[in-house]
Amino acid sequence: MPYIPDHLDQGLSVLFIGFNPSIRSGETGHHYANPRNNFWRILYNSGLTPRLYDPTEDQDLLKLGYGFTNIVSRPTKGIDDISRAEYAEGRDILRAKLEYYHPRIACFVGKGVYTEYCKRSKAEWGFQSNPFVQEIQEFVAPSSSGLVRMPMGEIIAIYKQLADYIQVDE
Questions:
Q1: In what residue span(s) does the Uracil-DNA glycosylase-like domain sit (predicted)?
Q2: Who contacts 57 (Cβ-Cβ below 8 Å, separation ≥6)?
């Protein structure tokens, strides 16, 4: 299955970083394309986007200063299908992307993505102290997967912290 292209640019406001694309995303070539994934609804309901975007419009978010990548680029059914070697390679590739593109905020879509990236055993929601790449703020947000059992209101509230920060910082 083909990999999904990253949407990257220099100096993004936020680079959203997922585990890896779903099979549906691999089939369509767009980020967060699984209809059970809440990513696009979360962005809209938290105030990060002015309207509800469709996964086919993922490249259009570059105009808003938002980009997309994953720690592992290979589409799979789930994170259990990702090997330790893929995480290790992905960690190095992701760090190089962050250092090159230098977004203001790296938003990890899921605690597991963040802990895999920085090799820390745990993380709290929101902004992290001691960023892995200096001068890039790290923000940990809940996964948008439909499998997450956290109430949607709580998920949106965490993403709203990011939206509020961006609005104040501009």
A1: 6-152
A2: none
Query: What's the angle, vertex CA 116, arms to CA 115 and CA 119, rounded to 5?
Result: 70
9 assigned to some structural domain: no
Residue 48 lies in a domain: yes
Total number of domains in the chain = 1
**Sequence-separated (6 or more) residues with CB below 8 Å from residue 168:** none
- Per residue of the chain (170 residues), give pLDDT as tens: 778 899 999 999 999 999 888 899 999 999 999 999 999 999 999 999 999 999 999 999 999 999 999 999 887 887 778 888 988 899 999 999 999 999 999 999 999 999 999 988 889 999 998 888 889 999 999 999 887 889 999 999 999 999 999 987 65
Smallest Cα–Cα separation from 12: which of 133, 95, 103? 103
Show the domain range for 115.
14-169
Rounded-to-integer distance, Cα 92 and Cα 85, Å: 11
Tokens of 38: 């809440």
164: domain CATH number is 3.40.470.10
